[in-house]
Amino acid sequence: MTARRLRVNGRDAEVEVAPDDTLLHVLRDQLRLTGAKESCGRGECGACTVLVDGVPVMSCVMLALLVRGEVTTVEGLAEEARDLREAFADAGAFQCGFCTPGQIVRAQALLAGGGVPDERVVREQMSGNVCRCTGYTQIIDAVLATGRRRAMQRAEVTTVVVGDGGGPAS
After folding, report:
1. Among 16, 40, 48, 102, which is disulfide-ready with 60 (CB 3.0 to 4.6 Å)?
2. Tell me: the pLDDT tens digits for 7-52?
3. Residue 158 pLDDT more than 90?
């Protein structure tokens, strides 16, 4: 076992890591962050998706000793992805909820760039996350709706910041 410091959800964590410990194992068993799930154990289903420096990774196949950078789990996205979670609920994009944390993490990474992806891009980027309950239409709809809503919010903020030319705000 090796003592290792990981930065997870904005906090430093000291963990004991064996050479074959996966990031998923450390997150769930040592840090008690249980949002990421183990399903396939081969990095094929996406239930274990977390972000490392903003990039989605399958934590069930990522060795904890090799992690460099900030790890963000679905728990760490609680506030930032609230609108995305609400869109999933509104669209009926989950049933059992097992894959939902990984879906949310991957979708948040996709939308983090600030643009509004088209359906083809969303389908392609979300293809690494398998859902056996809902089908994918509702998931795609939720991601697209969130992207559009965020774009509208950015446009509103830009309009307020730029102003209407009527002088200083009161």
Report:
1. 48
2. 999 999 999 999 999 999 999 999 999 999 999 999 999 999 999 9
3. no
Edge-first strand listing for the sheet containing 49-52: 11-17, 2-8, 70-72, 49-52, 55-58
The tokens for 137 are 């239409």
Provide CB contacts within 8 A for 107, sequence distance 6+. Answer: 81, 84, 122, 126, 139, 142, 143, 146
| Dist CA 88 CA 86 (whole Å) | 5
Contact 53, 69 (CB under 8 A): yes
Side-chain half-sphere exposure of 8, counting CA atoms within 13 A: 22
Give the list of residues 6+ apart from residue 63 with CB closer than 8 angstroms, or none.
Answer: 19, 20, 21, 22, 23
Helices (H), the chain: 23-25, 82-91, 100-111, 119-126, 137-162
Q: What is the dihedral of CA 103, 109, 114, 119, to 10 degrees?
A: -40
The token pair that represents 88 in the structure block? 């999933």
What are the backbone dihedrals phi and psi of residue 20, each rounded to the nearest 5 degrees, phi first? Answer: -100, 10
CA distance 157 to 151: 10
